Amino acid sequence: MLRLAKVGKRDVLYDLGSGRGLVVRLAAAEFSTKKAIGVEVEKDAHERARRIALRQLSKGKLRKVDFWYRNFDDRDIDHSDATVVYNSLEENEWEISFYKKAFRRKRLRVIKKDLPFVSYEPTAISSENRSCWFFAMRFPLTKIRSPEKWASIVLGKPNAEMKDVYRYYLRQVRRRNIKRSEDSIKHLRRLVAIRF
Predict the structure, then answer these.
(1) How many CA atoms lie within 13 A of 69 on its CB side?
(2) What number of other Cβ atoms are within 10 A of residue 94's Cβ?
């Protein structure tokens, strides 16, 4: 997934909703990023990420990672050094404007899990693993005007329709045992209605 965005030693990566910190640890250990920061709002997950990093990373790699216990959209966080952002969370209506304001980088790379930003074109797609697709995107984003064209790009199938995207996304959400999978589909439909 980090290869998809061509993450390397010059990059500063932020994992928004970092959970146990796997992506942060991978960025530091295998991709030698300049810095990798996990931002997590759940205290137990945040503390577990820190403990795992202390056990698994060398002292040199530990100097390159940090875990913040807070909401990623807190206004007092300075994200401006980010070059890559990973976000596996469900997209919010305000998310794109958040990225533009918070990160202030013209060439920011974003990796999204399951779906790219609704109505925007990904620069790369990794669909090798059926249960987990990743989409790389780059700011400034490229807008797609047609929902059918967006669906075809997302699914990699000509003539795909939005109903196919909804079915795909419902499968992805159910695979991860998300309890309110139907709510996720309603949320996606609302985003599609707003953006197209």
Answers:
(1) 9
(2) 10
- What are the phi and psi torsion angles at 87 (to 5°)? -140, 110
Q: Using an 8 Å Cβ cutoff, are 88 and 2 in contact? A: no
Backbone angles phi, psi at 99, to 5 degrees: -60, -45
Structure pTM?
0.93
Q: Which pLDDT tens digit goes with each residue over 77-133?
A: 888 899 999 999 899 899 888 888 887 767 899 999 999 999 999 999 998 887 789
Q: Which residue type does 53 have?
A: A
CA dist list (Å): 88 to 5, 146, 159: 14, 24, 27
Is the separation of the CB atoms in 137 and 109 below 8 Å?
A: yes
Please check whether residue 4 is in contact with residue 134, taking contact to mean a CB–CB distance below 8 angstroms.
yes
Read off the DSSP letter of residue 76.
Answer: T
Give φ, ψ of 174 to 5 degrees: -65, -35
Q: Is residue 111 within 8 Å of 84, Cβ to Cβ?
A: yes
